[in-house]
């Protein structure tokens, strides 16, 4: 009973098929509020597919996904969009900033879709990732590491319950990898639930728990 | 309440910023789309200006400007010209509501201080009604019994060194009569009148010693085609010594050209609009494809479909309005070239061109944007955000 009430992510009997390709099969996961979880596994094992479902960007073919007490299978696409902006912060491997907006504006855009753009808050988020001096620069004028830090600032600006990061350090050097991991750890210490996909075993060790995927199946869940 | 207001204001500001950035930051496709709309709008507005202006000018001219009726002596007549009393009777018989203006004309040669000139006796009040487009430097002669004033054609005034206010001595050809006249005005018609001197009919009759006579007369009658022919036939029947005939005016033949190419112009405009729509459609489709990752990202960040539609509709509208604005300016220039080439006339700006061009451009742009925008809405974030 206690476990159910405190888990923000509850996945049961979940499967995802793309035509004849089975990307995920019989996935059962429970992630508690405030946990820092790594998802690891070889390429093509279904990590991104799982994260897309967790972030309500995609829907499962089978099974249940309950996010913060809400059964996502009962939601329309519009409702899933609302859930995404209210509860979830996303970080991608490819950074994905709007190329024609400055660093500050990219963060304000997330506020815009969430509630209202507040410059001061956006600026504070930028200084938190150490980029307040670069607020007026376009993504093309920032290094990869800097772009990813803007993405993290954007992911945290609306104070989401969950931060989902798909190989956020995959395109970064070691120094920037450390910077990004430090930021994620900080966010976790503040009580946010974090799910991180990574290929790097060292990073996996920094988390509370590793979920291993292989050919769309769960390998083992270490408590 | 105040917080809600300011949230709305902040969101509006962010929306405008997004719009501005999307259109201005390294976006060559916007330039292509603006140029497409501009070219389309230019052609449409040029043709519309030409059509509206020429037809407006034409109907205005046919109604009020210029004589469209000529009256002269029958070739068989024994004496010179027409008897003024007969002419007055003829005018009196015309339906008054159809008669815009008329003037008798009496021509003769006179000597001035520096040489000979053609003197024309007219009824100034009537002349003014049928020739309001004369450019008059000075004042029209107001009263019919003013026999101390004259109006002088521009070229004659140059040769005779006359200006409004100067005086000139007019001597009859046989030197038996003479009078001093003050130049009330110099006129410029761009036609034979520029070589002539105009005085009241009475004075001309005295100077030329032709009391009670006129040479010809011109009238402006509200009548077109068959009706004008009908009036002419009635006059010819009732007044045997007189020949009346409608003047087929240049503007009327221009009108026939206009009627003939009206369909052609519409066809060209429609074709251009279709081509514009296709161009803009191709450009917007390419733009949506290029920006698919951003659009996916915006949706991933929580942008509703409505927000995506709103953004692209606004971008399209701005592109369209800028293009249409530039096109209107360009089109007005183009209309002048066409006006000079086809009708030898300058084209006046007609306000109706503005909503017409803008409306048609918006229609073309919206038609062009419909499919690309639907594509933008249908972008699946999970698919486009996947690192390729
Ligand atoms: N839209 C799709 N259509 C068809 N097959 C898909 C689709 N998306 C993913 N797959 C398949 O599902 C499987 C899992 O893909 P997924 O992207 O989740 O792998 P991954 O674990 O994230 O790999 P990587 O570490 O390389 O990112 C793969 O076999 C992939 O080809
Ligand atoms: Mg992946």
What this model shows, in words?
The complex is a heterodimer of chains A (about 220) and B (about 400). A 6-stranded mixed beta sheet of chain A has the order 6-7-8-3-9-10, sandwiched between helices. Chain A has a 4-stranded antiparallel beta sheet with strand order 2-1-4-5. Chain A has 8 helices and 10 strands. The two termini of chain A are about 20 Å apart. The longest helix of chain A has 16 residues, at about 175-190. The model of chain A has no long low-confidence stretch (mean pLDDT about 90). In chain A, a hairpin with a 2-residue loop joins strand 4 and strand 5. Chain A is globular and about 45 Å long. In chain A, helix 4 (about 105-115) packs parallel to helix 6, helix 5 (about 120-130) packs across helix 6 and helix 6 runs parallel beside helix 7 (about 175-190). Chain A has about 220 residues and is of the alpha/beta class. In chain B, the strands form 2 sheets. Chain B has a 6-stranded mixed barrel. Chain B has a two-stranded antiparallel ribbon with strand order 2-10. Helices cover about 55% and strands about 20% of the residues of chain B. Chain B has about 400 residues and is α+β, with helices and mostly antiparallel strands. Chain B has helices at about 1-25, 30-65, 85-95, 125-130, 155-160, 200-210, 225-240, 250-290, 290-300, 305-345, 355-375, 380-385, and strands spanning about 70-75, 80-85, 100-110, 115-120, 135-140, 150-155, 165-170, 180-190, 195-200, 215, 215-220, 240-245. Chain B has 12 helices and 12 strands. The interface between A and B is medium-sized, with 34 and 32 residues. Bound molecules: adenosine-5'-triphosphate and magnesium ion. Adenosine-5'-triphosphate binds near residues 43 and 48 of chain A.
């Amino acid at each position: 009973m206690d476990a159910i009430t405190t888990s923000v992510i509850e996945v049961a009997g979940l499967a995802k098929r793309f035509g004849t390709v089975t990307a995920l099969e019989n996935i059962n996961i429970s992630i508690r509020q405030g946990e820092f979880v790594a998802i690891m596994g070889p390429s093509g094992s279904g990590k991104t597919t799982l994260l897309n479902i967790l972030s309500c960007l995609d829907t499962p073919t089978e099974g249940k996904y309950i996010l913060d007490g809400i059964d996502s299978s009962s939601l329309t696409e519009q409702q899933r969009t609302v859930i995404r902006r209210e509860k979830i912060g996303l970080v991608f491997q490819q950074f994905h900033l709007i190329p024609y907006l400055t660093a500050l504006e990219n963060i304000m855009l997330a506020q815009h879709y969430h509630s209202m753009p507040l410059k001061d808050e956006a600026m504070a988020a930028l200084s938190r990732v150490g980029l307040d001096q670069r607020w007026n620069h376009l993504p093309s004028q920032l290094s990869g590491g800097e772009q990813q830090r803007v993405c993290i600032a954007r992911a945290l600006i609306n104070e989401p319950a969950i931060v989902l990061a798909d190989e956020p350090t995959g395109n970064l050097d070691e120094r920037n990898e450390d910077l990004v991991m430090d930021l994620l750890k900080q966010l976790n210490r503040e009580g946010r639930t974090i799910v991180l996909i990574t290929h790097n075993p060292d990073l996996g060790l920094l988390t509370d728990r590793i979920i291993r995927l292989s050919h769309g199946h769960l390998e083992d869940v270490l408590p | 309440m105040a917080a809600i207001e300011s949230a709305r204001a902040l969101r509006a500001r962010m929306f405008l910023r997004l719009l501005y950035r999307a259109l201005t930051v390294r976006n060559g496709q916007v330039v292509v789309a603006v140029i497409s709309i501009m070219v389309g709008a230019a052609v449409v507005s040029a043709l519309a200006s030409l059509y509206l202006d020429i037809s407006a000018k034409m109907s205005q001219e046919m109604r009020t400007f210029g004589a469209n009726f000529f009256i002269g002596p029958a070739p068989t007549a024994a004496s010179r010209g027409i008897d003024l009393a007969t002419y007055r009777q003829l005018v009196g018989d015309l339906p008054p509501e159809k008669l815009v203006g008329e003037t008798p004309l009496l021509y003769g040669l006179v000597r001035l201080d520096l040489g000979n000139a053609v003197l024309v006796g007219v009824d100034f009040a009537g002349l003014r009604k049928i020739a309001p487009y004369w450019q008059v430097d000075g004042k029209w002669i107001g009263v019919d019994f003013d026999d101390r004033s004259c109006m002088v054609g521009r070229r004659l005034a140059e040769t005779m060194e006359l200006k409004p206010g100067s005086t000139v001595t007019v001597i009859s050809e046989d030197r038996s009569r003479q009078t001093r006249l003050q130049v009330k005005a110099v006129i410029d018609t761009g036609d034979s009148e520029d070589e002539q001197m105009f005085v009241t009919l009475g004075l001309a009759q005295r100077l030329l010693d032709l009391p009670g006579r006129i040479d010809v007369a011109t009238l402006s009658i509200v009548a077109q085609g068959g009706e004008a022919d009908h009036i002419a036939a009635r006059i010819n029947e009732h007044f045997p010594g007189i020949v009346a005939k409608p003047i087929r005016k240049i503007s009327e033949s221009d009108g026939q050209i206009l009627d003939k190419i009206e369909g052609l112009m519409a066809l060209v405009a429609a074709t251009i609009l279709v081509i514009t729509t296709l161009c803009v459609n191709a450009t917007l489709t390419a733009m949506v494809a290029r920006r698919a990752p951003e659009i996916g990202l915006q949706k991933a960040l929580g942008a509703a479909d409505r927000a995506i539609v709103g953004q692209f509709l606004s971008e399209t509208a701005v592109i369209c309005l800028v293009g249409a604005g530039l096109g209107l300016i360009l089109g007005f220039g183009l209309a002048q070239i066409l006006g000079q080439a086809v009708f030898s006339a300058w084209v006046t700006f007609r306000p109706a061109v503005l909503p017409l061009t803008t409306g048609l451009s918006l229609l073309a742009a919206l038609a062009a944007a419909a499919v690309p925008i639907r594509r933008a809405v249908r972008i699946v974030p999970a698919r486009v955000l996947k690192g390729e």
